[in-house]
Amino acid sequence: MIRRELVEIGQRAKQAARQLAYASTESKNKALLAMAEALLENEQEILRANTIDVQAAEDKGIKKSLINRLRLTSQGISNISSALREVVNLKDPVGEGEVWTRPNGLRILQTRVPLGVVAMIYEARPNVTVDAAALCLKSGNSVILRGGSEALESNKALAKVIAKAAEDSGLPAGCIQLITETDREWVQQLMRMNEFVDVIIPRGGAGLIQTVVQYATVPVIETGTGMCHAFVDRDADYEKAIPIVINAKTQNPGVCNALETLLVDETIAEDFLPKVEEELKKHHVALKGCPRTCAILPNALPAEEDDWVLEHLDLVLSVKVVSDLDAALDHIYRYSTKHSETIITENYSKAQRFLKEVDAAVTYVNASTRFTDGGRFGFGAEIGISTQKLHARGPMGLKELTTIKYMVYGDGQIVT
Amino acid sequence: MIRRELVEIGQRAKQAARQLAYASTESKNKALLAMAEALLENEQEILRANTIDVQAAEDKGIKKSLINRLRLTSQGISNISSALREVVNLKDPVGEGEVWTRPNGLRILQTRVPLGVVAMIYEARPNVTVDAAALCLKSGNSVILRGGSEALESNKALAKVIAKAAEDSGLPAGCIQLITETDREWVQQLMRMNEFVDVIIPRGGAGLIQTVVQYATVPVIETGTGMCHAFVDRDADYEKAIPIVINAKTQNPGVCNALETLLVDETIAEDFLPKVEEELKKHHVALKGCPRTCAILPNALPAEEDDWVLEHLDLVLSVKVVSDLDAALDHIYRYSTKHSETIITENYSKAQRFLKEVDAAVTYVNASTRFTDGGRFGFGAEIGISTQKLHARGPMGLKELTTIKYMVYGDGQIVT
C-alpha cells in the first residue's frame, strides 16, 4: 500500500499534469520568468536554509568536494536564476510533429505531448531542484522532486520559492512538488507509483541509479554512469592524442563524461606512454596500469580489476596496453557503461570501425569525451545523459521529456 | 542467480546482436527470404507439431476460440511465409538519421541503431513466433522468444525452421532463440537479465502484461490492453455514429482496439440508444448499461463497476449516458487504458477538445478505434501497440525496435 501522503502528492501531480499538458508556451515561459525573479528576491531565505545544510554536512565530516557542491552563494543563486531564463528561450517541443493522409482519407497527426508526471530522484547539488523543475515545466510535465537528505533545507527553500512563483503566475497547483520526508520507505514507494508517475529519472552515483533500476516498476531512464575509454591507435597524431587525453581526464574529473581508462596500441606504447605521463603529471593525475604499462612507466601503480570496472571520478587514470583495435574493442565491449568512447587515429577504416562497432550513446573520433553534454551538442539544456537504449540515449533535452500522441481526423471511416 | 542455461541463451543472443548490429540490409533480407522458403518446405513437420498442441488443448477442454487461434493450416503457414516476404519490402531504419555541425567543427551524426537483444513474451498464437523474429532481425536485433505453453510444440517447430534458415543464410548463430522450458521460474529470470536483454515486449492479456511490468528489471514496452471508448456527442451525425460503433465493437471483438464502452450525451440518449441497439442486436451484441441506459433500453443488463474497468473482448458493450463532453472526458480519464478513444461529433470545438484533452496513444474524431494498427497507419507491420509513454506509443513498427547512437567526427577538439 502506498502511504496516504504520497497518494496525495501523486494525485496533485497528475491533476496538474492534466492541465499543464495543454498550457501554452507563453504561459509556461511567464512562469519560468516569475520563478527566475523569485529566486533573486528570496536569496536571503535560500542562503539561510543552505547554511543549515552546509553546517550539518561539516559537522558530519562530509568530504570537502561534496560540501562545495552543496554550498550556495549569492552568485550561485544568480546563476541558477539565469539558467531559468535560458530555458525560456528554448523551443517548446509540445505540439510539433508530422502529418500524413491514408488512402481512405484518414488524416493522421503524430504530435509531441508531455510525458505527464516526471519524478526526479537525485543527490547533493541543490541547483538540480530548479533545473529539473524548469525543464519539466517547459515541456508541460508536472514534477515530483526527491533530492538528497544533505540538501534538504536548501531544496525546501528553493522548491517553495519556485512552486509559489509558478502557481502565482497561473500554472496549476501541484506542478512542482518536493518530497520533504527523507525516510527511505517514501522513495521506495514513489518508485512503484505507476498509477501516478509516468517516468522516473535518477541522477547521481551508480549506487542510486542501480537501486532505482532494480526496485522501480515505473519506467526508468537510467542516467549518467560513465566508464569512458580513449583508445590511442598506432596511427594516432600525438598532437591530438595528448591534448584530448589531458582534457578528457582533467578538465572536470568528477563528471560522467570524464575519461577513466586509456587504452594504448602496443606498437606505440613505449613511445607514447612516457610522453602522455609527463603531461598528466603536470595535472597531478595518478596512473593505475596493466603489467605492460607498469613496465614502461615505473611510477604507475598496478591496476586491479575494479580499476577497469568502476569510475574513478577523480584525478586517477587506468592505463592498458592492447595489441590492436580488436583488443581495444573487446576491452570496451566488456567494461563500457555505453556512455562515451573515443578513438584517436588518422586511419580512416579504423575510425569508421570504432564509430560503428562500439555500442555506446556517443562514439568519437579525435575528440574529447567531455563533449557529451546537452549544451555542447546544441540542445540548449539537459535533464541528464541517458545510458540506456529505450526512449532516449545520450544527452536528453526537452524533446526527451515528451512522448508522442496520434490525433486522427476522420469523416466516418470504418475498417473493412 | 540466473540459471546457467539462461545465461548461455543470453550470451549467445548478445554475441549475435553484436554482429547483427552492422549486418547489411541485403544480408538481412536474404535471411528473411530463406526463412519464408523454409517454412513452406517444412510445412509437414510444422503441421505435425501443431497437431500435438491442438490435441492437448482439446483434451484439456480449452475454449474453442483459443483453439482456433492455436491451429495452423497449410494456408496459415503460407500466410506466415508471405508475411515474411512483406518484411523484406519494409525500409530498414538502421543507419538513418540526421547530422549537424557545431561551431567548433565537430560533426555530430545521430543515427538509428538496433536495440540489441529483444525478448518477446507472448501467449497462444504461434504466428507471433515468426512475425516477431522477422521484425527483430530486419531491425538488426537478436531475439529471445518465450511463447505460451499451449503452443510449445508449434513454436519449437517454427523457431527451429526459421533459426536454421537464418543461420544457413549467413546471420550469426543465436540470432533467433526460443525458450522451450515452460517452468515459470525461467521467464521470471528472463525478466531480470539486464546484462543480456535490452528490452522486453510482452504481448497478450492484461494479466501477462501486468506481471511483466511488476516483475521485470529489464526495460519493458507495455502493449495492448485497450479499454477503448466512443463518445457520441449531441452534435453527432448518426450516419457516422452508428456504423462506427458497430464497426469498432463487432468487426473483431477480441482485439485490443475494439470498442468496450459507449458514452452517449444525455441530450440524444433517448433518441440514439434505441437506434444503435437495433443495429447492435443484428450483430448479437449484449449490452451492460448504467441506470439511465437501462431505463431507456429495457433489454440492457445493469453494468457493474468491472464493466467500466475491464475489456469484454467479446460481443458485449458497456453503455453509459453522460451529461456532456466534460462528463465523457472525466469518465475516459478515469477508466481509459490510454489506447484508443473516439468522439463522434460535427462540432468543431468539441472535436478539438477531445483530441487534445484525452490522454491516449490514439485519439479519433469520427472514425473507428479499429484503425489503431501498424498496417492501417501505413507502417507496414507492427510488433505490438504500446500503451506506455516511454520510447514508443501506439502502433510500433521497425523504427520502434531501434534506438539512436551519436557518432562524432572530430579533428582534435577539446572542451574549454
TrEMBL record, chains A, B:
NCBIfam families, per the entry: PRK00197.1, proA
Main location class: cytoplasm
This enzyme's EC code(s): 1.2.1.41
GO terms for cellular component: cytoplasm
Function: Catalyzes the NADPH-dependent reduction of L-glutamate 5-phosphate into L-glutamate 5-semialdehyde and phosphate. The product spontaneously undergoes cyclization to form 1-pyrroline-5-carboxylate.
Cellular compartment(s): Cytoplasm
Protein name: Gamma-glutamyl phosphate reductase
Molecular functions per Gene Ontology: glutamate-5-semialdehyde dehydrogenase activity; NADP binding
